[in-house]
């Protein structure tokens, strides 16, 4: 697995919209943050385009992302936001120049599709905040963690343990991300092998019976059988619907992982929440889950 070079002041990065278009000017605050880190920020030609709910037509989004992959001057790619649409362009992207000159791709939500596709190419990427939500209230610590990761290669997260956690430790690569997107990738060439990996799951705005159905699909596909560990991030605004399953998210996941032995860390600060800590996909990390705390270190 190749890890892209760390960033340095003066490096050029690019903002793209491979999924939905920006809903507001919040991304401009993200640019200010990146510039405060000493980075030169380029806006892709179609980054602010609108095509229905997308950040431009498929052709426009494809062209921008291909430019970002190919240009050797660009050291990191920041999708402005998620939404929907990344998987529509994945199979038409050419990664030849990217493989020769790897660079960081940072994002979450719909960008889960890109991160997992890149993992198949043996290139590390970052599941973490995007410019659209860099300045979300309460997210300062996660944003500083992203800066430390990009410029110094350091990651160290220490949080209180949850009563439903399963104690244990693992040292492995992280894969996964948004649950809906992971299920969407099943059967495609963009889904990496989960065996021996630490799986991250998070989601937003899904009915609990949808969560049950998707986690059950992971189970039936054998994707929960041979994990090294499981990190359960934020499941924001996921509620019971008219069709009730009688369980919360943690209980659903515990039911469908019953019989396995790997550690499980619930309520991890990752996903559609203010404290969306960055996690490197494709690089071995250490996960320790004990009765008092959960530690994630490189």
UniProtKB/TrEMBL annotation:
Keywords: Carboxypeptidase, Hydrolase, Protease, Serine protease. SUPFAM superfamilies: Class I glutamine amidotransferase-like (SSF52317), LD-carboxypeptidase A C-terminal domain-like (SSF141986). It comes from the Bacteria. Residues 13-128 form the LD-carboxypeptidase N-terminal domain. Pfam families: Peptidase_S66 (PF02016), Peptidase_S66C (PF17676). The keyword tRNA processing does not apply. Residues 172-287 form the LD-carboxypeptidase C-terminal domain. The keyword Protease applies. Coiled coil: none annotated. Belongs to the peptidase S66 family. PANTHER family: MURAMOYLTETRAPEPTIDE CARBOXYPEPTIDASE, MUREIN TETRAPEPTIDE CARBOXYPEPTIDASE. This is LD-carboxypeptidase. It comes from Aquirufa ecclesiirivi.
């Amino acid at each position: 697995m190749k890890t892209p070079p760390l960033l340095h002041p003066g490096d050029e990065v690019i903002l793209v919209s491979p999924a939905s278009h920006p809903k507001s000017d919040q991304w401009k605050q993200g640019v200010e943050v990146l510039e405060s880190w000493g980075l030169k920020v380029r806006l892709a030609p179609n980054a602010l385009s609108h095509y229905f709910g997308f950040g431009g037509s498929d052709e426009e989004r494809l062209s921008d992302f291909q430019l970002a992959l190919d240009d050797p001057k660009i050291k990191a790619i920041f999708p402005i936001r998620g939404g929907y649409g990344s998987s529509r362009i994945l199979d038409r992207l050419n990664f030849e120049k990217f493989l020769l000159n790897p660079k960081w791709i940072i994002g979450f939500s719909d960008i889960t599709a890109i991160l997992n596709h890149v993992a198949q190419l043996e290139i590390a990427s970052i599941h973490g905040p995007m410019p659209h939500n860099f300045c979300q209230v309460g997210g300062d610590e996660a944003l500083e963690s992203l800066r430390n990761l990009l410029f110094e290669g350091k990651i160290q997260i220490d949080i209180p343990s949850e009563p439903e956690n399963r104690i244990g430790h693992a040292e492995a690569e992280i894969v996964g991300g948004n649950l809906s997107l992971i299920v969407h990738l099943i059967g495609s060439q963009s889904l990496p092998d989960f065996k021996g990996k630490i799986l991250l799951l998070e989601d937003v705005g899904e009915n609990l019976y949808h969560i049950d159905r998707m986690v059950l699909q992971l189970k039936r596909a054998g994707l929960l059988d041979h994990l090294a560990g499981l990190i359960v991030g934020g499941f924001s605004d996921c509620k019971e619907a008219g069709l009730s399953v009688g369980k919360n998210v943690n209980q659903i996941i515990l039911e469908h992982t019953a019989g396995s032995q790997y550690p499980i860390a619930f309520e991890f600060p990752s996903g559609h929440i203010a404290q969306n800590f960055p996690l490197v996909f494709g690089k071995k990390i250490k996960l320790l889950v004990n009765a008092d705390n959960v530690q994630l270190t490189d």
